[in-house]
Design a protein that fits this description.
- By secondary structure, the chain is of the alpha+beta class.
- The chain folds into three domains: 30-52 and 77-159 and 176-321, no CATH class; 329-449, no CATH class; 457-520, Arc Repressor Mutant, subunit A (Orthogonal Bundle).
- It has helices at 82-94, 190-207, 230-234, 250-269, 297-300, 315-322, 329-340, 344-351, 354-367, 373-391, 408-419, 425-438, 442-449, 457-470, 472-479, 486-496, 503-520; strands at 11-12, 24-27, 31-42, 98-99, 102-103, 105-109, 119-123, 129-137, 143-155, 159-163, 166-170, 177-183, 219-228, 242-244, 277-282, 287-293, 303-304, 311-312.
- The strands form four sheets. Strands 1, 2, 3, 4, 8, 9, 12, 13, 14, 15 and 16 form an eleven-stranded mixed sheet that branches.
- Strand 15 (277-282) and strand 16 (287-293) form a beta hairpin.
- Helix 9 (354-367) crosses helix 11.
C-alpha cells in the first residue's frame, strides 16, 4: 500500500528546519515535499500469525522455528492468532481509528525465496482499522494531525542473506505477526516524519504490542516521497512517488527523505521525469539507490484468502479491548503538567518511555505531590539519573531505567535527606551514583560513609580561617574590591570540609568573615 493525499507543510530554507501548518518545506526553493509513511511493526505475541511456532526467533538456529504452515506445505491450513488481532485492534483504538465490523485476509502474490508459499497472507480491501490520526508536536508549540489511512494484519517474511554468490534463507521470521500502519500523505518534511515515527513508537511501546527495537527489525519504515510545486498543490496534483524500503532507524528515514526529495527536485529542474521505483538507502554514502521498479496492487493479484473466513469484530469485543488501554502519553503529559505542575520539557521526556513514566510515578507516590515536589523529582530523574544511565555505556535507551537496582522509593528517600538537611545536594549526587550501582538505601550509605552535613558553626569557621590563611593574595584582591572571588573561597571551604558543609550556612559565615576582613583591611 502507498499513501496519496493532501499535505500541510512549512516553508523552510534547509532540510534540518522544522515545520508547521503555516507554510511549506521547500527544496531548491520551489518544490514541496509530500510524504506518506508505511510502518511495519512486529507484534509481541508468543506464537506466529497463523501457526503455533514460537515468534521468539531472535538468535535461534536458522529454520528451527518452522512448521508445515509457515513453510507453506501443501494441505497445511492457517488459523488466525487471536492475540495478534486484539493487538491490532488495540493499536487502532489508540490511533483514533474506526474498527471495521468485518475484516478479510487476502493473498498478496509475489515470488521471493523468503516467502515459501509464493504469497503473503495480508489484508487489502477490508482491513481491521481505518481512518485514524496521530497528533505530532511542532517546534512552534502547535500540533498537526497525521492521518492514518489503515492499520492491518499480515505475516512477516523470512530473511535472505547473500554470501559469496549464494542466497541463504532463514524462515524463522516467516509468519511472525506483522502490523502495517499506513498514513495519508500528510507528512511535509523530514522532521515531521521523525516526529511522527517517534510518537508512533512511543504509542506502540505503551500499548505493549511492539518493542520498537528497529535494530532487531521489529519496526521498519518505508516512506513514499514525492515533490510538487505550490501550483500543483493548488490544482490537487501530486508528483510521482518513490518508495524507500526497509529503513531501520528514524535518523535514516529523516536523511533519506531529505536526500530523495533533493534528487527528485534536481531531476525536474533538469527537465527530466521522476520514475516510480523502489529505492534502498545507502547508509555509508547517505544516498538512495535503485532496487526495482515499483509494483502496483494489480501486480500482487490480491484475492480473498480461501482458507481463513472473514473476521467479525463485534462491539462488545471492541469495548473489552478498549478497557485494557493504558493512559497514553499525551494524556499522561497533560496530567503531569496540570495536576503536578511539571514544566512541559520534563513532562515530555518522562512520558517518552512508559518505563520511565512508571518509575517517576512510583517515586512521586513515595515522595508526595506537595507543591514543587514532583518537579523536583523530575529534575533529578531527567538530570542526574539519566546522566548516570548514559555513563554506563548503554546508549540513550531510557527503558534501561527498569533494570537498575535502585527503586523509585529510594530516590524519594534520598531527596528527603536533602530536604531535612541531613546531606547537601552535592553529597546527594554522590550517594545517588552508589544507589544506582548497588541498590543500597541512601540512609545506610550516608551513615556508612560519614556523609552527614556539617552544620557546626565552629567547624565551619575553622575551615574558613584555614582557607583565608592559605590564600593571602586572593584575600588581598577581595579586599581591593574583587568581590567575585567569593565563589572561589566558597569552593575552597567546601573542599576543606569534603563537600559536607551546609552550603547556606557556610556561605553566610564566609560572607561575614570576608566583610570583617575587608573592614579590618
Amino acid at each position: 500500500m502507498s499513501a496519496t493525499s493532501s499535505a500541510t507543510s512549512k516553508a523552510v530554507d534547509s532540510p534540518s528546519s522544522s515545520s508547521s501548518p503555516a507554510s511549506t518545506y521547500l527544496v531548491l526553493g520551489k518544490y514541496e515535499v509530500v510524504v506518506g509513511m508505511e510502518v511495519h511493526a512486529q507484534l509481541l505475541t508468543r506464537s506466529k500469525m497463523f501457526c503455533r511456532c514460537s515468534a521468539d526467533y531472535q538468535g535461534a538456529p536458522p529454520n528451527s522455528h518452522t512448521c508445515p504452515v509457515c513453510l507453506g506445505m501443501p494441505g497445511a491450513l492457517p488459523v488466525a492468532n487471536r492475540a495478534a488481532v486484539e493487538a491490532t485492534i488495540k493499536t487502532g483504538l489508540a490511533l483514533n481509528c474506526r474498527i471495521a465490523e468485518t475484516a478479510v485476509f487476502a493473498r498478496k502474490n509475489y515470488h521471493y525465496p523468503d516467502l515459501p508459499k509464493g504469497y503473503q497472507i495480508s489484508q487489502y480491501e477490508l482491513p481491521l482499522c481505518l481512518d485514524g490520526w496521530v497528533a505530532i508536536d511542532l517546534p512552534d508549540g502547535g500540533s498537526k494531525r497525521i492521518r492514518i489511512r489503515r492499520a492491518h494484519l499480515e505475516e512477516d517474511t523470512g530473511k535472505t542473506t547473500h554470501v559469496d554468490g549464494y542466497s541463504l534463507v532463514d524462515l524463522n521470521r516467516a509468519g511472525v505477526p506483522l502490523m502495517e500502519i499506513v498514513t495519508e500523505a500528510d507528512i511535509a518534511s523530514p522532521d515531521e516524519a521523525y516526529a511522527f515515527l517517534t510518537k508512533l513508537r512511543t504509542l506502540l511501546r505503551y500499548l505493549g504490542v511492539n518493542s520498537g527495537d528497529m535494530e532487531k527489525g521489529a519496526m521498519r519504515c518505508e516512506p513514499n516521497i514525492s515533490v510538487r510545486t505550490p501550483e500543483m498543490r493548488e490544482r490537487g496534483e501530486y508528483g510521482v512517488k518513490v518508495e524507500v524500503k526497509n529503513l531501520n532507524s528514524f535518523r535514516s528515514v529523516r536523511n533519506a527523505i531529505a536526500y530523495e526529495a533533493q534528487r527528485q527536485a534536481q531531476i525536474l529542474e533538469q527537465g527530466g521525469q521522476v520514475e516510480q521505483v523502489n529505492m534502498g538507502w545507502d547508509e555509508q554514502n547517505q544516498r538512495t539507490v535503485l532496487q526495482r521498479t515499483k509494483e502496483s496492487a494489480e501486480d500482487y493479484r490480491y484475492f480473498p484468502e480461501p482458507d481463513i473466513p472473514p473476521l467479525r469484530v463485534e462491539e462488545p469485543w471492541i469495548q473489552a479491548i478498549r478497557a485494557t488501554l493504558p493512559e497514553l502519553p499525551d494524556a499522561k503529559r497533560a496530567r503531569y503538567q496540570e495536576e503536578w505542575g511539571l514544566r512541559r520539557a520534563e513532562a515530555e521526556i518522562l512520558t517518552s518511555e512508559k518505563r520511565v513514566a512508571d518509575f517517576f510515578e512510583a517515586a512521586v507516590a513515595a515522595y508526595g505531590t506537595a507543591k514543587g515536589k514532583p518537579q523536583r523529582l523530575a529534575n533529578w530523574i531527567t538530570g542526574e539519573l539519566f546522566r548516570l544511565l548514559y555513563a554506563e555505556g548503554q546508549g540513550q535507551d531510557l527503558r534501561q531505567i527498569a533494570g537498575i537496582p535502585m527503586k523509585p522509593e529510594q530516590l524519594a528517600q534520598l531527596l528527603r535527606l536533602v530536604d531535612e538537611r541531613v546531606i547537601n545536594p552535592n553529597t546527594a549526587k554522590k550517594v545517588l551514583e552508589r544507589m544506582v550501582r548497588t541498590g543500597e538505601n541512601p540512609q545506610a550509605i550516608v551513615e556508612a560513609e560519614g556523609l552527614a552535613m556539617v552544620s557546626d558553626t565552629a567547624q565551619i569557621d575553622a575551615a574558613i580561617d584555614q582557607v583565608l590563611a592559605a590564600h593571602p593574595e586572593e584575600l588581598a584582591r577581595y579586599r581591593a574590591g574583587e568581590t567575585k572571588l567569593l565563589g572561589f573561597f566558597m569552593g575552597q571551604v567546601m573542599r576543606a570540609l569534603k563537600g559536607k558543609a551546609d552550603p547556606g550556612l557556610a556561605r553566610q559565615r564566609l560572607q561575614e568573615k570576608l566583610q570583617s576582613e575587608a573592614s579590618s583591611g
